[in-house]
From TrEMBL:
Keyword Magnesium in annotation: no
MARVEL domain segment(s): 26-224
Database matches in InterPro entries: Marvel, Synaptophysin/porin
Localisation per UniProt entry: Membrane
Highest rank taxon of the organism: Eukaryota
UniProt name for this protein: Synaptophysin-like 2a
Organism: Xiphophorus couchianus
Alphabetic keyword roster: Glycoprotein, Membrane, Transmembrane, Transmembrane helix
Main subcellular location of this protein, as a coarse class: membrane
Amino acid sequence: MNVVLFCSGLCVEQSLASGFSLDLGPLKEPLGFIRVLEWVFAIFAFATTGGYSGKTTIKVTCQPPLSSSDATAVFGYPFRLGAHPFEITICNSSHITSHLQGDFSSSAEFYVCVGVFGFLYCTATLILYLCYQSVYRQTSRGPIIDLVVTVLFAFLWLLSSSAWGKGLTDVKWATNPDNIASICDDCKAGEFPSMGRLNASVIFGFLNLILWAGNCWFIYKETRFHKDPSQAATVEEGFSGYRQLF
């Protein structure tokens, strides 16, 4: 049993070693070029969401001679807003501790998770395209597996981008100073949080959806379903002969 496993592992290593050949040619083709774009936009998607931190401010306006004060609530990824308390000093000099309302971590974390795994898959397939192109095309299974995974990621980008878009709308409402100011009579809206980075993250999500869905066609062209069956059989026979020689 151990001998069989050792021989199988050795054959895999020899196959990978013999199949290694750095070729930047696929980057000039839609298959490789779009994969690079997916790699870049996946980074933008999870980085703009996962690294976000913002603040929202309300003002407590008192009649003279009493002074006014600001209350600032800081929040960020993963947007469990209830975990961010902030203190308000009201006009009678007493203090109120309040919390932002809402937990939007599920949609944000799902979106970031899809982005990270998409980035890792793009990295792996780019290595395969550029360094092991012969292994990728050795049988019809490589392009088919690539197609199935790409279709799956396109669907995940649709789900996660839609969910995060809805979640971001709720985050904006929950951190709007006009809504927070209702907790006390003397409170008014102050500084609004900057949401440009989060708006960009949703845009990157739907751009990823377009890229991954569009790339399905170019990967499909690499499968036996698109190619002439006789041509696909000839290619596989050629690689079978190559394996027998080595």
